[in-house]
Amino acid sequence: MIRKVLPVVATLAVFAAACATPAPQQAPAPTEAPAPTTAPAQPTEAPAPTEAAPAQPTEAPAPTEAPAATGVDAITLSKDKPTEILFWHRYSGDAQKFVESFVEKFNAENEFGIKVTVEKIDGSYADLYSKINAAIEGGTPPNIAQAYQNQASFYRLDGNVIDLSPYIQSAKYGLSQAEIDDYFPFFLESDKNPQFPGEVLGWPTSRSAAVLYVNLDWLKELGANEPPKTLQEFEELACKASDPANERYGLAWQNDISNFAALVFANGGRVLSEDAQSYVFNSEAGVESLALLRRLFENKCAVEIPSAERFGEQNRFAAQKVLFVMASSTGLPFYADAVAKSEKPFRWTYVMFPQKDPNKPVVDIYGASWSVFKGTPEQQLASWLFLKAFTEPENIAQWAVASGYMAVRKSAAPTAIEAVKNDKRYADFPEAAEAYARLYEMVAFGAVEAPVAGYDPVRKLMSEVVSKVAIKGEGDIKAALDEAVAQANEVLKENAPKGY
N or C terminus: fewer CB in 10 A for the chain? Predict the structure, then answer.
């Protein structure tokens, strides 16, 4: 049974011994030399040489047996006995098509007899999370699935996902150090959880960043030659662009809490303490972030996009009803499609989200990894080998282009960047194509929200605070954040592993 899901060398010493000099002794009296002896008359014959005994051949040592394989290396997969695994995801569009095509190719070509069945789960990541929890409860989880770091941590509490370390380190099936070094370090670090030290509960396949989409033509009309770099410039331009009477606003806000987290990071704060012992989004950075949002809504410089308005932020951006949109960088192909279909296409791009101190930027970088669920040894190994194959450089580069995600491996990034630059979807939007290349520069400034179990319900708490205090303008900002953090810390405590 799973836990109840809360609302939604040794040192050597050298000794020098001192030798005492003995007392001198008196030399003995000289003796007479003995009389010389007479030499023999006849020389003696030299002894006859002896023949050397023939060398006896030595027997070759008996060969020693190689040590028996242990652990992961002892598992054998064979085409004679296929191993079937089930993969759950929620990709759509070109990303879904790529996954399905890759699975078909992998099933036909892999040498291990692995057969992957792929199943798309409709809905949001929250829907996928709920379905996986229900499947675990029923004893029928998938073998491998998309999971955010906090979700993988929740599954791990009751041993439902496995530590991938033995597979990664396997001499037979794992990755060489050179291969590991080919992954962007931040992406590997982001899958680590301080609550489960030394364990790897997921493997990066997809990463994106919280960015700011900008209408460049509209920005020029406002007298700005480049997108805002500071939060102050961002606020000023958003309000300058707003014309509520004509339903035009500076910012389209979708209450996805990663947008609020991106603001907290941009203000120099954190969502979770570094030791993962408490939530800290009620810091000064949190207060400043919520205050900024409140001002934007009070001054009618921002408009909320309701969740029921499917692709509302993209459509309004394409219709030039909003100047800025805070959203994931994976939206690049979708924004290109929306603008291309608009009545009056325009120049646009996305940039790093504006910062309180542009010299010390922090970027919210996120993405669901793939986690392997507990099954038979063969199923677990098969899941790892499928995951390993998917992230081979050539495959991950193609995946990045199809999905809009960053390529998680360094050697794949140039290929992905060049492919996006030459993608016909961006032929009329060169600034947008160039944005994808700049995305990789943001990795050096990446931060992770909260990779701990129970973050999903905490996100809901944060969303409620943003809605009430910023969008509706109700209550005291600091008090509201303090209350939310107190509740969040209770959730953190309840979902922490034993002994943590």
Answer: N
- Strand-pair partners of 425: none
DSSP 8-state class, residue 63: P
H or E segment at 339?
helix 332-340
> Distance between terminal CA atoms of the chain?
21
How wide is the angle at C-alpha 316 spanned by C-alphas 243 and 213, nearest 5°? Answer: 95
List beta partners, residue 303.
252
Question: Whole-angstrom Cα distance, residue 190 to residue 202?
Answer: 10
Query: What average pLDDT is seen over the chain?
Result: 89
For residue 310, how many other CB atoms are within 10 A of its CB?
Answer: 9
489 DSSP assignment: H
Nearest CA to 488 out of 466, 457, 452 is that of 457
- Check residue 14 and give its pLDDT: 31
- Among 203, 165, 159, smallest CA distance to 498 is for 159
Whole-model pTM? Answer: 0.84
Could you give the angle at the alpha carbon of 344 between the alpha carbons of 340 and 346, nearest 5°? 70
- The mean pLDDT value for 460-479 works out to 97
Contact 121, 88 (CB under 8 A): yes
Nearest partner of 147 among 175, 170, 128, 119, judged by Cα = 128
Alpha-carbon distance of 248 to 267, in angstroms, equals 27
Cα-Cα-Cα-Cα torsion 167, 171, 177, 182, nearest 10 degrees, comes to -50
Tens-place pLDDT, residues 315-345:
999 999 999 999 999 999 999 999 999 999 9
Give 14's DSSP letter: -
pLDDT at 36: 39
Task: Say if CB 290 and CB 470 are below 8 A apart.
Answer: yes
Contact between residue 167 and residue 174 where contact means Cβ atoms under 8 Å apart: yes
The pLDDT, as a whole number, for residue 3 is 52
Measured between alpha carbons, how far is 150 from 194 in angstroms, rounded to an integer?
A: 11
